[in-house]
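Pipeline run #58 for the internal structure catalog. This entry was flagged by the ingest filter as a single-chain record with no existing model, so it goes straight to prediction. Upstream metadata was stripped on purpose; only the residue string is passed forward. Reviewer on rotation: M.T. Logging verbosity set to normal.
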Amino acid sequence: MNVFEAVKQFVTPRQAAEHYGVKVNRSGMACCPFHSDKNPSMKFYKQRFHCFGCQADGDVIDFAARLFGLSVKEAAEKLATDFGINYESSHKSGSRASPRPVKRKISEELRFKQAEQKCIRVYSDYLRLLERWRTEYAPKPDEKNWHPLFVEDLKKQTYVEYLLDVLLSGSLKERAELIAAQGEEVIRIERRISEFAARDPAGRGECRPAARTGTDDR
């Protein structure tokens, strides 16, 4: 077992955060150490962490690397030392893998990581918009025709929260299936958010209601 596998098996992001002085509440939330954060916006899951403010995201090694400004290898070795984890060195003679399979494996993992990060970022941005629309376009007591953006929030917010929960705490299989299924939808939402921001950078302008697709409006 190499240092990366050993650290991920024995140390969770929350354990590392608390070990290095980050206070985590009972709900697994903490003030993000990576940006000026007065209200807890970082969530710790079993194997991942995610900040809904600055979008910092990753596993326990990513957390330590970012916290101390280290490479992922240096961060993994620091965690192993700090938590007393034993592991096998990958520099034994005759143990080098052929470069071509390694390169292909890294490329596949990188593509998945990038797609996963994009899904998390886009759905986090969309969730913040939905929450804003619920407040800004809430109907008055005597108003019969509700604003379409308020209606969109009612239809979509719970579903988007579910998608983020899967992306941040689901199994590898669940995350992979979601990313594959939501690819086109993520692109559409990202484009729509960009158009909204371009029309009104302050976030006070109009945004077209979501176009109806063949998917269920959950």
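catalog note: The beta strands are 29-30, 42-44, 49-51, 57-58.
catalog note: Confidence is low (pLDDT under 50) at residues 91-104, 202-218.
status: ready for reviewer M.T.
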